Amino acid sequence: MASQDNIMFMRRAKEQLAGQWGNAAIGSLIYIVIIAAASSIYIGELVLYGSLTFGYILFLACLIDTKQNKLDLLFKGFNRFVETLIAGLLYSLIVSIGIALLIVPGIIAALGLALTFFIMADDEKISGVDALKMSWDMMNGHKTDLFCLWLRFFGWWLLCILTCGIGFIWLYPYMTATTLNFYRKLRYGTY
Fold this sequence. Notes:
The protein is an all-alpha fold.
């Protein structure tokens, strides 16, 4: 994918979130607060990460596709707790091992598995392990594309840090919607 695609993914995400920034921020705040609270106990974050990330993607996809604010979707991942738990644990384990090896393998692993929960949110019958495999296969030859896309948000990350993290409740839905557009383009050829 070209650099122009990245600009289009970002522009499309802004269009999709137009009029929905408040709802997206509320959903993001709930997601971030729960993940932050769970991370105070390391095992808590490991257990909740998969289910909450799956639910957050469902929530945001519904918000941008239908303009309906369904906060209950944030917790929909608990209906598929075992699959999302396995996917979250394996994702964390693989990326952690990669980072321990020399950081770069961890980044490559994170990029290769980045679409796992988008795939699971898109296909309710797929298992966590199969979603991880599918993400790795889909990202073959596209890891650099996603890295460059996420790199475009670096300045926004710095600004969010300067706001003591408050800006993340708006940046996170923007990045997630942009990544959703990347995923849809990769999987379906359109977004």
